[in-house]
Model the fold of this input.
Amino acid sequence: MEKRDATKRGTGRAGEDIAAGFLEKNGYRISERNYRCPIGEIDIVARDKNDLVFVEVKTRRSADLGYPEQAVGIKKQKKISKLALWYLQEKRLNGVRTRFDVVAVMMQPSGNDIRLIKNAFDFVSF
Done:
């Protein structure tokens, strides 16, 4: 189990690196990666024009478990929403336009398939 966890973390970290590069090439300015607070972690916080964007990165090496973006269900959306509020309060960012994007990375031998889903979900109250 420990080896699988380490592989999962490695895949996740590689996917986040790929996603960050992809976002930067598409005009996003990365503010933070792996922002941590007592209630969890946000993969990427970035600026896209006038929006502050909270980005969840999901990475898979195969479609056996479904597409990466399918792993961002309602429970995960609530968690990310809660983390976003924490971030905004901690950084004292009142009145800033925000949104939630998902970057789905499928790492394959033939090359990476990267999908950016802008406004992937709305804020979910908890």
